[in-house]
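User: Teach me something about this protein's shape.
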Amino acid sequence: MNMPRIVFYASMLVVSAHSAQLYAEETTDRNILSIGCQKDKGICTLQLNGDAVGGRGCLSNMLMFNAATDKNADAVLSLLSAAFFAGKKVRFEISGQCGDQEGIATFDSFRVLN
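Assistant: First, the predicted structure itself:
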């Protein structure tokens, strides 16, 4: 393999690795403006204040999680509801994947702030 080809492939590898991590982001401190769930689908959504978050195809100020399939959905819904009603700020780690609802990002973790 000649040197220009090696440099090209190495560059593409670096760009690909960097692109895969572009959408794993942490939000700034956010207020939850609304929270709700669809009983028939088990999908819960949050509307956040501030700029849109998420990767390509699901850039929005909405986040979602699947209460029917997520392992700790009851705890997540309880903590986020408590933060909403208490007016506490929350910081989310965005997963970079669109959820079951087109155009809405999902999150891997969150922290309720005092």
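Now, about its shape. The radius of gyration is 18 Å. Strands lie at 25-26, 32-38, 43-48, 62-66, 89-98, 105-113. If you'd like, I can walk through any region in more detail.
User: That's plenty for now, thanks!
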